[in-house]
TrEMBL record:
Residues 119-130, 334-345, 668-699 have a biased composition (Acidic residues). InterPro entries: RNA_pol_I_trans_ini_fac_RRN3. This is RNA polymerase I-specific transcription initiation factor RRN3. It comes from Xylaria hypoxylon. Residues 35-48 have a biased composition (Basic and acidic residues). GO terms for cellular component: nucleus. Residues 18-29 have a biased composition (Low complexity). It comes from the Eukaryota. Residues 1-63, 112-133, 329-360, 661-699 are annotated as: Disordered. Pfam families: RRN3.
């Protein structure tokens, strides 16, 4: 066909005489047993495989399938050379390269990277006109397709001596071209890996590296029709699924690549969100990587969670309010321009004045948005799996969540939101509740475990039981009694050598005692065996000054341990001790104010062991010797109210809010308090939320 016949378009097979032979032969491979092309699931489709994405103007369906018929690759010849001619050129070029002559080899690399090379003898003055001529552009498009088609038969020769060429081939912008080119390119990748087993890592790395691409300029190619992001992502997964199906060893090679290509935590939210979305898609067709993918996502999510919490803790009220304003502004602009971060940046800059403040607010805002969107996606992913919470499938999935909780979340101090996955799904049935509580109890009372892990398990268990709106009362009683039993055992052991309260020596005991007081503050109604008939269960005030019968042993457990030599009321968090004392007194459970008052005259330093017992080390470190807060437990409880604006919809009905009792006056020692001050004191039992008050008010 003459190059000048621009109106003639001929469909032809890629090979001149017969269709191109399959690249995967029946012989053994260095990659192990290979599956057939039929097994790969990419050759037999009902849809028209020859349809091109080029020129399509209507938006693609979400996650639309990109179909590949690798047995019937057709090209539109518009004056392009034949495949046989291109094949001969490549053969000669590789032969000269082997002899050390690289001029044609370098030209070939440029050509395969999309840089056009002229084969006509026309004058240079006509070059610019030719480059913009539609026929020339079409010819160049078809020619680069021809090169990749021809290269499949030379895959065995693309060994170490051709590393530069292979690197160039893998850098080709194949995602931004048409559907036909993507088919040809994936066909070539399979041929390359089939012939050169060690290239598998390079090919998989190239594919995964593009998981974080989210903007058109990252894949667009001049002269080719724009390609939608959904189509780009689908092409990536068609290629990856093809490799996984053809080469069984690919899963083990892929696992470390996924971790190495994960966006760094300081990168903006967009690469994170797109990368995680692609990981979740990969999880759907790669069963062997399901757990590894979730471990990777959760581990990186926890890091963001902790960084976000630490950043917000360090901010003053002004900066916290600025974060809230930036989040609100970003939400308002989200629907206006999905592919632009300009509105986000403006919303932050308008709130800030100093460069340092701008950076801190922007970082906090982006971390919150990363957390929020990723968690929202995970909640959505897991929800169908717990449609029947009694099923074995739900139990198996929850087992995976428990493993991630035990290995990744529990050991991390200051994780604030990631754990709500287990909080939400763990309340779907009593069987799941029991599984979570059992896991925490086992960790809390295994002496081989690190102390910090055991204390954290106590906090998680207490917070789950206290805050879980769907945790039934009888389970609250059972957990309280189990914890009380272990508390008595610890006390019996520790009291033998105890001289007085010492958080460093008896930390497990104090952590458990604090957990029980925390549970009592939220679930005291569930610990009541019976109450007079005139008590209204919906009105806490109606319980005041009533003759209440508590569950047997509950009161004895608390009394034995509170009045022990270990004196937990001096060491446990003052906020929790104060709230417990209020409720216990007014519901006639226990009167501990005399003990609290006497503890004010007690100095913890006289019982401390080690270098800090005499206060010298504290003075050297500029500590205030009169400040005993460092010798007391923190009041960290991990399931305090969830405040991420988007994903909180999943858990809003899962936790019990703190409900102060109006008019409850704790001051029995003759010191009256203003009701407003009391409300503030009661509210202190809620830990600071990740977004703080300023952000919460804006959402």
């Amino acid at each position: 066909m003459s190059p000048t016949t621009s109106t003639t378009v001929q469909l032809a097979r890629v090979a001149t005489g017969s269709p191109l032979k399959p690249i995967l032969k029946s012989s053994s491979s260095v990659l192990g047993t290979r599956r057939s092309r039929d097994d790969a699931g990419l050759d037999n489709h009902d849809d028209d495989a020859s349809s091109s994405m080029e020129g399509a103007q209507s938006p693609p369906r979400k996650r639309a399938r990109v179909e590949f018929d690798l047995e019937n690759i057709e090209v539109h010849e518009i004056g392009a050379r034949s495949i046989a001619e291109i094949r001969n050129e490549i053969r000669d070029t590789l032969a000269r390269h082997a002899q050390g002559e690289d001029e044609d080899y370098d030209v070939l690399k440029q050509t395969l990277q999309g840089k056009p090379v002229s084969y006509d003898d026309d004058d240079d003055d006509d070059d610019n006109d030719k480059d913009s001529d539609p026929v020339t552009i079409a010819k160049q498009r078809q020619e680069i397709k021809g090169y990749f088609i021809a290269l499949t038969s030379f895959a065995p020769r693309l060994g170490r001596s051709c590393d530069g060429l292979v690197r160039g081939l893998l850098q080709c912008q194949w995602l931004g071209r048409d559907d036909q080119f993507a088919k040809i390119y994936i066909h070539f990748l399979a041929a390359l890996v089939s012939a050169q087993g060690p290239r598998l890592t390079q090919v998989l790395s190239m594919i995964v590296e593009k998981f974080s691409c989210s903007r058109p300029f990252e894949w667009a190619v001049d002269g080719w029709a724009p390609v939608a992001r959904e189509v780009v992502q689908e092409r990536l997964h068609v290629a990856l699924r093809y490799m996984l199906n053809l080469f069984p060893v690919a899963e083990s090679v892929l696992e470390p690549i996924l971790a190495s290509k994960y966006p760094f935590h300081e990168e903006s939210k967009r690469p994170h969100l797109v990368y995680v979305d692609n990981l979740l898609r990969l999880r759907q067709y790669s069963p062997g990587l399901k757990n590894d993918i979730m471990d990777l996502i959760i581990s990186r999510l926890v890091k963001i969670d902790v960084e976000m919490q630490m950043d917000l803790d360090d901010m003053d009220d002004k900066l916290t309010a600025m974060v809230g304003m930036a989040l609100k502004s970003a939400q308002e602009h989200e629907d206006q321009d999905e592919d632009s971060d300009d509105s986000d940046n403006e919303s932050v800059s308008s709130a800030g004045s100093e460069d340092d403040e701008y950076h801190r607010v922007k970082t906090a805002k982006e971390n919150i948005e990363k957390m929020d969107t990723i968690l929202d996606n995970l909640f959505e992913l897991y929800t169908p799996m717990f449609a029947d919470p009694q099923s074995q499938e739900a139990m198996d999935v929850f087992g995976d969540l428990l493993a991630e909780f035990s290995n990744l979340i529990l050991p991390t101090i200051k994780s604030r939101h990631t754990q709500f996955l287990i909080f939400h799904f763990g309340q779907r049935s009593e069987r799941l509740i029991d599984a979570f509580c059992g896991t925490c109890i086992n960790i809390a009372f295994e002496s081989q475990r690190p102390l910090v892990l055991r204390q954290s398990a106590c906090a998680y268990l207490a917070s789950f039981v206290a805050r879980g709106a769907h945790v039934p009362g009888h389970i609250v009683v059972n957990i309280f009694e189990v914890l009380g039993y272990h508390l008595d055992e610890m006390r019996a052991v520790y009291e033998i050598s105890c001289r007085g309260p010492d958080v460093r020596r008896y930390a497990p005991f104090y952590a458990l005692m604090q957990a029980l007081m925390y549970v009592f503050c939220f679930r005291w109604q569930d610990l009541i065996r019976s109450a007079p008939d005139d008590v209204d269960k919906e009105d806490p005030l109606s319980y005041l000054d009533q003759e209440i019968e508590w569950v047997p042993e509950i009161k004895d457990i608390m009394r034995r341990n509170i009045y022990s030599k270990l004196n937990p009321m001096k060491v446990c968090s003052p906020v929790i001790v104060d709230q417990f004392a209020k409720l216990a007194h007014h519901f006639r459970f226990m009167y501990v104010y005399p003990l609290i008052e006497s503890n004010k005259r007690l100095r913890l330093s006289q019982y401390s062991v080690g270098a800090y017992s005499n206060g010298g080390a504290l003075r050297d470190m500029s500590f205030d010797v009169n400040d005993e807060s460092w010798q007391q437990l923190s009041s960290y409880f991990p399931f305090d109210p969830y405040q991420l604006p988007k994903s909180k919809r999943w858990v809003e009905d899962d936790y019990l809010p703190w409900r102060p009792i109006p008019g409850l006056n704790p001051e029995e020692l003759g010191d009256d308090s203003d009701e407003d001050d009391l409300d503030e004191e009661e509210d202190e039992i809620d830990e600071d939320t990740a977004t703080e008050e300023g952000v919460e008010e804006n959402h």
